[in-house]
Amino acid sequence: MEGCTYRMIMVGPGPIGGIVEEKNIPVSHWMPYVAVNDVDAAAKKLQQLKGTVCVPPTDIPGTGRFAVVGDPQGAYFSLYKGLPESAGADPDQPVPGRIC
């Protein structure tokens, strides 16, 4: 990520997440990602259901597309769709230490 430090979290055969150091965010927090088939459509549907879009659907070069959203009760998470060629963990492969 341009302008900040980004470290990949690796478990077993591949990446399962990342850690970003962002000086403009005042407190540490977790940002869960939810896989969707279409980030733009999911963000639009979330707005129709009274949620908010904090970061609009955006491409991550060579990786996929994401958006940061909030549900009507104020819980924030990211929507994500990876590119077919981007590395990622196989959710069906049991690996010790992997969150499920």
In words, what does this structure look like?
The chain has 100 residues and is mainly beta. The chain has a single domain, classed as 2,3-Dihydroxybiphenyl 1,2-Dioxygenase, domain 1 (Roll). Helix content is 10%, strand content 41%. It has one helix at 39-48, and strands spanning 5-11, 14-21, 33-35, 52-60, 64-70, 76-82. The chain has a 4-stranded mixed beta sheet with strand order 3-6-5-4, with helices on one face. Strand 4 (52-60) and strand 5 (64-70) form a beta hairpin. The two termini are 26 Å apart.
In short:
The protein has 100 residues and is mainly beta.
Name its key features.
41% strand; mainly beta; 100 residues; four-stranded mixed β-sheet; 10% helix; two-stranded antiparallel sheet; 2,3-Dihydroxybiphenyl 1,2-Dioxygenase, domain 1; globular
